[in-house]
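Study both lines:
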Amino acid sequence: MIISTLNFIDEKFLRLITKFKPSLFCFLLNLRQFLILRRSISFHFSKNQKLFFAKEKDLTIYFFSPYRQVRLYSRGIKKRLKNLASDYFLNSIPIEDNDYIIDCGANIGELYIAVSKIFNKKLNYIGFEPSPKEFKCLSINASNQKCEQIALSNSSKKQKFYISSEEADNSLIEPKNFSNFIYITTSRLDELLTNTPIKLLKIDAEGGEIELLQGCEEILNNIQYISVDLGPERGLEAKSTFREVIPFLINKGFSIEKISQKRYTFLFFNTNF
């Protein structure tokens, strides 16, 4: 009862201070971190970039959504990145230096930071993120890598892209809740990458997984592992796409290696390797 009450108060406090100016928000937040949570992580605002960023020892990550990211990072950036790595089974993938990792739905680039900083690997990373705000952060967080502001699907055409950045639920498929939409041109991944040997293809397409995979058909033989979020996020009915994705990949020679019920992520292995 006491813990739930404290959590409720903390939630109200966070929502309140997000309405303040960025400098005051960060000051109050850092007081909370030091006096209450006793954490070494600190939050700041870059006037040049017009973005927030969090620092913890040698880790720095830029973000634009203070309420969402503060909830994720308050207990530590490293802890958040380790949880993300676990969600996508990075510990089960033999990632080596110079491996290619393709991050579809890269958001602000947490996967890159997790692999490069937590696992200390030098990657060939390509991150795809169509949403403008997320892409701005991605291009900073993975500044020495290739980042593309592109939406991936099974065809190249102009489409609506629905934005719900506060909850990171941006999608080509119209969701139940969204704050805005923009028009973008989609691309097939197999038209952007041809003979590249890919260690890991990570997919978080907010319900557009099967279309994205159909746009990879010509290069699936080059991909060793696919880690994909198949949570109930497709369209107005918020359906999962596992019924479409699993048989599609099995028919292409992939096997299911691991399943996480926590986030409904699946790890597939290419049996042709």
User: Anything to note?
Assistant: The chain has nine helices and 13 strands. The chain has two domains: 2-75, 81-270. Residues 81-270 form a domain with the Rossmann fold fold (CATH 3.40.50.150).
